[in-house]
Amino acid sequence: xxxxxxxxxxxRFPEPLAEGQHVHPRPQDSVLNTARANVAxxxxxxxxxxxxxxxxxxxxxxxxxVKCQSCLESxxxxxxxxxxxxxxxxxxxxxxxxxxxx
Length: 102
Fold this sequence. Notes:
This protein is mainly β. The protein has strands at residues 37-39, 51-58, 61-68, 74-79, 95-96, 99-100.
């Protein structure tokens, strides 16, 4: 017996996408930026105190880096999470570059 309040009596399906329409549209920004944090200290290469910390995708995966914004010298570079900000449930990589990961 079905009633008007039964959600399965007449299921509503989403409208199909129009031809060429994407589920996730392209960003409207011309430049994509990452969140950066100022770091105290000065660059050992050029002496300027414009250090910033941020995450980059480079060879070998995601990295947390500290770079001089004047000369782009890398002050430090540490492996970040294996999948960036995405953390899948029940999946872990035990070894990365010879080091155990959590």
